[in-house]
């Protein structure tokens, strides 16, 4: 009977002869050995995977592993500006290293292999190559939160491909990551051709940053430092020694700057032409005197404001200011009458053309007469808040100032209309402009002078915010100034048609610009008379706040004005009908129209505003609440080239 071996195969019992039993046992053993071998292979594969993962986790070769010295040498050998700009975007470390490379340290790249010609490139004749315009200067400005060292360094690196920055202005600083000496160092190293630098409200910049600029930018010509408390005389001395080509210096509200810095600037910067020193508490007579004495051959413009200087500084200016043409003195509380008198009598300001004095108690009638006598080239005089100047001083001044062209008085309350009339009687043939602003002494006079002056040379007249100036005075002005071209009577609330009409009738010339803003009592009668008499020459008319102006004025303007370019009707009583009249005047080519605050302008005006023509560049519809945002949007779409304020 054959032997049975239990071997499960599909649930069936398989029988085998005895001679096959040994063979079956050997097969089972081989299968076991195969299973062991497979387990060994799997273990080996798992070990290989673990080894591979471990190898992947090992640090790969990277440029970041190089020390700064090696990376510096690599980066400075990059072939061009585009490559350096791209590298600066890799990381802040790379940007910092690129920013520390001076322009002179950049390695020369190997000459590239000659490339095939670009058939799409425009052909340029050899003789035309000289006509290719040169690249404009690289000028950058950063403000507020954008002003950081990183941004400044990036600017310097990118601009390095074009020779570096030439003009840079930093206005403000990031509150936590503001511009420091490091940012200025990057600019100094990458911009050797920098010629203009302005630092406003940069509190973290110190003398070290300014010294970097002085060392790296020897071509610097203009330096403007405002509200930088950590900059002192040491920084200015570095600039003086490193930037001998400086021609313009402005220092404002820098508490660390004193006399030594200005002394160094005057001694080393022999080309200095303009100086502006404002609100520096430690600047005194020594600094100003040394600066003016040393730069006597080149200094043409001087501006001093809020300084603790005395009569001595003005005496030095009067003696050594041989080429000074513009002089501005503001809030010099410790300078007296003697200072201005000595400045004039020193007879050094022979080339002075423009004098601007504000809030200086030393300006008196005596000082003003001396200035006119010895400053024989004076053409423009601006006096603001000089309360000690009276009619007598103004009369004496105009008697001697034979070449005077422009006289402006603001808040000089000691001057009256009698003094103004006397001055007009004395003025020469070159006198062209008179401005009276907020002068409380300008009031109607009880009786006209025996001899009224006739000033045919006067072209520009401004009488603004003088509440005592009324119709009577305006009629007199019209009689003595028949050749006016520009008239500004803004803020004269007491002036009516009775005063404006005589001025219009007596005008023999052609009025070009008329500003009646705030003249609330002027009506359509005066405006109609104005445009009928001078419509062919009028280019700008402002009627802002004239609440009695209606559509009748717009009808007269549309009929008579041929050259009108700017019209301000803010807060007037014009309506949709008036806007339609303006739009229908095809000969009218307005560039700027203001309807701000016109409550009678409604959505009905929108189609007419859209037909004003392509000459319109600016349209003010602020506070026209009835028009609505939807109509404004449609108007913006139709007048896509026009700036619309709404």
How would a textbook summarize the main sheet? Answer: 20 strands, parallel
Backbone shape: flat
Spatial gap, N to C terminus:
115 Å
Unreliable spans: 1-21, 108-116, 118-134
What is the helix content? Answer: 25-40%
Radius of gyration: 41 Å
Structural class: alpha/beta
**Mean pLDDT over the full residue set:** 84
How much of the sequence lies in strands comes to 5-15%
Number of strands: 20
Tally of contiguous helical segments: 22
SSE diagram, text form:
Layout: H1 21-57, H2 68-75, H3 81-88, H4 92-99, E1 139-143, H5 149-159, E2 167-171, H6 181-190, E3 196-200, H7 207-216, E4 222-226, H8 233-242, E5 248-252, H9 259-268, E6 274-278, H10 285-294, E7 301-305, H11 311-320, E8 326-330, H12 337-345, E9 354-358, H13 365-374, E10 380-384, H14 391-400, E11 406-410, H15 417-426, E12 433-437, E13 460-464, H16 471-480, E14 486-488, H17 497-506, E15 513-515, H18 524-534, E16 540-542, H19 551-560, E17 566-568, H20 576-584, E18 592-594, H21 606-609, E19 618-620, H22 629-638, E20 643-645
Parallel strand pairs: 1-2, 2-3, 3-4, 4-5, 5-6, 6-7, 7-8, 8-9, 9-10, 10-11, 11-12, 12-13, 13-14, 14-15, 15-16, 16-17, 17-18, 18-19, 19-20
Structural write-up:
By secondary structure, the chain is an alpha/beta fold. Helix 8 (233-242) runs parallel beside helix 9 (259-268), helix 17 runs parallel beside helix 18 (524-534) and helix 18 (524-534) runs parallel beside helix 19 (551-560). The longest helix has 37 residues, at 21-57. The chain is flat. The protein starts with 20 loop residues before the first helix and ends with a strand. Mean pLDDT is 84; it is low at 1-21, 108-116 and 118-134.
